[in-house]
Amino acid sequence: MNDFKDDPAFTEGLEAFLIGDWAVAKDFFLLLDKQFPYNNNIIFILGNIFYSLGDLEKSIEYYAKTIELKEDCGNAYYKMGVSYFKMGKFNESLKAFKQSTQIKGSQHVMVYYYLGLLSMHLSKDEEAIEYFDKLRLASPQSKMAVFFEARLKINRHEFEPAIELIQEFLEVSPEFSEAHYLLVVAYMAIHKNMKALNSFNKALELNPDDKRSSLKVESLSTTDWP
Q1: What is the pLDDT of residue 211?
Q2: One-letter-per-residue 3-state SS of 103-144
Q3: Cα-Cα end-to-end distance for the chain
Q4: Residue pLDDT, tens place only, 91-103
Q5: What tens digit of pLDDT does each residue of 201-217 get?
Q6: Shortest CA distance to 34 belongs to which of 19, 64, 13?
Q7: What angle do CA 25, 27, 31 make, to 5 degrees?
Q8: How many CB atoms lie within 10 A of CB 222?
Q9: Other beta carbons less than 10 A from residue 201's beta carbon
Q10: What is the torsion angle, in degrees rounded to the nearest 10, for the CA atoms of residue 23, residue 24, residue 30 and residue 31?
């Protein structure tokens, strides 16, 4: 058998992986790695298995091996970036994600989500907005990009565009209290205090323990109403 996919170990290992029995899947794919050395597909799957097991250092090791064998494997760069991100190694994560965007036809759309988050972390708001825009274009159903972009707009005092984005986000996640709180902030900034109060009431209804909302309503109570 020349093709590793014809080996019974592949079928059993893949089945174990798909049902979440990752320890069993690991044993099968380590065996396949010995039988079919230097196979980038097997090595990439091993990276995914170690990622699923929570062994991020090992997953990075296997993603790096995958890239050595197949330099244009955008998914390996992407998964490496996610692994570094979860380890808090943001510089390494950023490098891997950016590399994945350079490989046409082989990149994961969520790379723009992580690049946006990393840019926010580095206080590069303009870059973050660009990445979230790309995510929205590539995956319109991904509304978390809309939420983060709204936060960035508020930070830049672009309150009207932020309100539009938050309202778009709330169409799919009406129970997300943080979005209602952001509306409070944005409406107060443009002196639409009645709308701010309505948003405050909703934010407090969803999260009664949010002390920030209490401070906002106290500010609203001492503000002249339009």
Answers
A1: 64
A2: CCCCCCCCHHHHHHHHHHHCCCHHHHHHHHHHHHHHCCCCCH
A3: 79
A4: 999 999 999 999 8
A5: 888 888 887 666 555 55
A6: 13
A7: 115
A8: 6
A9: 14
A10: 160
